[in-house]
Write a structure and sequence with these properties.
single chain; mainly alpha; Non-ribosomal Peptide Synthetase Peptidyl Carrier Protein, Chain A; 4 helices
Length: about 80
């Protein structure tokens, strides 16, 4: 499974959204109405799923899906 697919699974699990709702290049707070609490939940699940250290302020609700995938890939996630 690709990094993109794994991140989508995290979003689906935490936010209970359909894949079609996840827009690759739109800010998460705009496309999914994400708030700060939901973003913290996503970060916690991603830390566990990917086994990488992610600072609470490193991934923000103003990032896009593609930006988050890029951050994870820069940490060596494959």
């Amino acid at each position: 499974m690709s990094v993109e697919e794994r991140v989508k699974q995290v979003f689906k699990k935490v936010l209970d959204v359909n894949e079609s709702e996840i827009k690759a290049d739109q800010r998460l707070d705009v496309s999914l109405g994400l708030d700060s609490t939901e973003m913290v939940e996503i970060i916690v699940v991603m830390k566990k799923e990917f086994g990488v250290a992610i600072a609470d302020n490193e991934i923000k609700k103003t990032h896009s899906f593609n930006e988050i995938v890029g951050i994870l890939k820069s940490k060596g996630v494959k």
